[in-house]
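Fold sample X.
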Amino acid sequence: MLNFIKKYPALFSGLGVTILFVFFWLIRLNFIDSVELKFYDTLLKFKSVPEQSEEIVIVDIDNTSIEKIGRWPWPRSIIADGITKISSGKPKVIGLNIILSEPEQNAGIDELNKLEAIFINNFLDASQEKGVLFLQSIDEARKSLNNDQKLSEAIKHSGNIVLPVFFNDSSPTVQKIPGTGNPMAKHTIKNIRIPANAHIHNADKITNPLQPFFENAKGIGHINFGPDIDGIIRRDRLLYNYKVMYVP
């Protein structure tokens, strides 16, 4: 056997290296995975960078914007104005990459609500017609301060806004097909055919935009990313399964 190995050293050297790499692949050492990912990054550096599309415009909320307009978060009336200005350029679609899952905290509306309650409880009966006019003025002031309503109207008027949702991953489970009354149903992909070896990410919890925004949006898309073991994001998750509804 030893003489046979000496006679064909290249054959056994190659076989030994192959066995070693198969062993590393089976036990999936993080070191080997990291080397593979870095090798992938190196290959990408040698690829030509495609030219940027002139059909896509990114309207960024950057440090310069914050210096000019004020600290974040901005009043949603500013976002509504931005949508209106962008819509005037007749874009095919607008992707608003801000999760609007909670109402805007508005101190002005809170104070008007307190004032209204105090007036109704203490002065309304004696004020008669003037009191009704006063309450109408409070209601008009409240509407003028309602930035969520302004943003909702801007989304509706634009007619081509895609809003983001965020998923919490889960293990695959048997899920019921949603009813037609589910508001998400109209925004999801139908007629999905999944190959046997394909991997679809599953979710059991979703962070949605507020209902008025959701109802007026043209569509939704998830903003989930999955970093590799070194923390770098190299790929997109093209599809999420949420209760048998598929979100791109």
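Fold sample Y, listed below.
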Amino acid sequence: MRTVAALALLCCLALAPGCASTPPRFYSLSALAVPTSTSSDVSVIVGPVSVPSRVDRPQFVLTTGANQVSIDDFNRWASPLQDNLAGVVAENLSALLGTSRVLLSQSSASAEADYRVQIDVWNFESVPEQSASLGAVWTVRRLKDGKTVSGRTSAREPVEGAGYAALAAAHSRAALRLSTDIAGALSALRADSPR
């Protein structure tokens, strides 16, 4: 029994230097919206945002076949995916609506907002060197009277280049499409706001 334990320890020690020589790389989504030239005082809460459990992990989850995924331990998201996505949507909305008053739902000032955005992501697929897909249902609620607008966004962006940075960039473009759809719904609700 001691011989087996000693052999197992030697194997672990022999493999450890190889593992230590490849540190994980970290990536994040980016806000891509171009700021509008108009300004507004509208206030928006973004959150909660949910993501499918299969991608709710630090590692990139890659679609490698029709019924197959792989988890890459050496390429990871820098923060929880739902937090990163919420932050990027908030930044995009701030630029698209021309307001600095877009908050995340964890903010202590969020109770004073005019609108709340809730996002339920049902698809977040990464196919290396091919495409990044984002599918979500979302709701925009006017907090003053509870009126809501709901929608669905399905975005599929080509991956422009090799590597995980290109994959994260494609997901960022998909998040911009989601943000643009939500901004349109917010603008419609604002135009329909009771005086």
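Sample Y note: The radius of gyration is 21 Å.
Also: The helical segments are 2-20, 81-97, 164-191.
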